[in-house]
Amino acid sequence: MPPTNRQVLLASRPTGEPSEANFRIVEAPLPEPGDGQVLVRHHYLSLDPYMRGRMNEGKSYAAAQPLDAVMLGGTVGEVVASRSPALAVGDHVVGMGGWQLYSVATPARGEVRKLDTSRVPLSAYLGPVGMPGVTAWYGLTKIIAPKPGETVVVSAASGAVGGVVGQLAKRRGARAVGIAGGPDKCRHVVEELGFDACVDYKAHPNVDALAAALREACPGGIDGDFENVGGVVLDAVLRRANAFARVALCGMIAGYNGAPIPLAAPQLLLINRMKVEGFIISEHMGEWPAALAELGELVARGELRYHETIADGLDAAPAAFLGMLRGAHLGKQLVRLI
Amino acid sequence: MPPTNRQVLLASRPTGEPSEANFRIVEAPLPEPGDGQVLVRHHYLSLDPYMRGRMNEGKSYAAAQPLDAVMLGGTVGEVVASRSPALAVGDHVVGMGGWQLYSVATPARGEVRKLDTSRVPLSAYLGPVGMPGVTAWYGLTKIIAPKPGETVVVSAASGAVGGVVGQLAKRRGARAVGIAGGPDKCRHVVEELGFDACVDYKAHPNVDALAAALREACPGGIDGDFENVGGVVLDAVLRRANAFARVALCGMIAGYNGAPIPLAAPQLLLINRMKVEGFIISEHMGEWPAALAELGELVARGELRYHETIADGLDAAPAAFLGMLRGAHLGKQLVRLI
Known about the structure:
2 copies of one chain form a homodimer. Helices cover 26% and strands 25% of the residues of chain A. Chain A has 9 helices and 15 strands. In chain A, the strands form 3 sheets. In chain A, strands 3, 4, 5, 6, 7, 14 and 15 form a 7-stranded mixed β-sheet that branches. Chain A has a 6-stranded parallel β-sheet with strand order 10-9-8-11-12-13, sandwiched between helices. A two-stranded antiparallel ribbon of chain A has the order 1-2. Strand 13 of chain A pairs antiparallel with strand 13 of chain B.
């Protein structure tokens, strides 16, 4: 029996918190590569918070995910059939293959990029040497641009992006302080990733308590904030911000299910002459080569630590995704497909 | 009888809205210029919204105004006694003379700057060719940096800063849309200052109504916002912001008396990949010469329109200041002292 494809589709848009009922898993014929195309068998699927935004209809920074179509997502895999001179069977590639076992791609259009797995593990190209790593690199180096001795705070510090932010900040001579949910994650952030401190937001469930904990973790105040969460977390960070502090606004997961997340005191942005900049990394492709060069070298040398949480099999993808949105994972959430 | 000085002191800090009881007017001996100093007789005193912030204790972008001290403020006047080689009796100068009839200043320390009143009226150096003008110039050209065809919105558009913002935006090929309180101010902004449109926030007293009015006034959306007000006004502007819009955060007068001014939907900053930057113009002294050169030339040629609301006599300063905070003025609020 020839292999068939298997896909996760978006079946319906969530109202509030999404559930497995929003997804549908189907069998599909193996796609045929056309002229100039390759067939890729996916080894790992990347699960990322931005996908939650795409499940909604309406205005977001990413276009809405179409209903009854394969969920969009980053993948790494190997070429199993090639009608392109650019890639041979057996080559490893990264692309946006989606939540499925196989995809076809056109190398000449940049839909897949060949990977060197001799020094960097394949899965790392979905994490620290992929979109999450470049996101961290861009927000830290291009928006926050920390000076030695400054303090950089990152929320969701135990996640795929946050972990890289803090380590890059440390390498640039800054104090790195994480915010994460629960003692285990905070221990990981400090002991495994080498942050200077980590504040457990679950132990400080209101803005006053969280601001007090940040005061202790950041005795010199906060000069840079890499924001992945928003809501009370951002309110507390702003209370401790120094003059001329910079906020790289990368995500506001506190509001992904539709809860209002007002900013309590925007006047602090003026009082402290702050800069806030929202960004989406796919709009800064020109920065990827420099970012990937630094990140790849650091991972190859073992100087950039990262953790993976791996779910097995395509059918596990929806539950793993929902768990990630609730913070059940540590580091990069992946689905292993072979 | 030799002339004496007369001063307005801060008598007490306001709780909520300030009143005349927060000020005290006193007579004082005429100050004596020391070696290297000049005695300046003030012709005009500048009243500015930032002074409200300084009346409070605690953290603001400006240091608190000391109690029982002369209210700080910009002044233009003439040298009436000189012990400095840099200035002669009769020279016109601008400085921070404060709410009083006379002050001493040291030219070598940059405390006063000599003015050319042959092409620009003396009072304009407190308005379009002074701090308000430079504030407008900096926020517009350095933060918003409009491209031809873009739309720039400015709140408090009929004020000393806002009026300049819109005219500079027009000169750079942008569409200029004001937000102001009441039909008379809006008419002034469009007919006298040449804005393309002006939205009356008093006629649209909630965020839905104001956003709808902005949609009509800004059919192409909003690319730049020069924010002087905050609160509902900023919420409405964000609803109509385009991707990559820039906010120059100059003032948030909606919150000056202590009312909370939460930002309803900060996620719009991320969705639209916006940039928000707070600034205070005294921290960008390097930009003043270029700004003043452009502004002075435009005023001299009659190509930059401005309006002055003038109160007469030092004793009228507190009431004029309180009126300005309530929006009773049009353009630049001055106190004429001679």
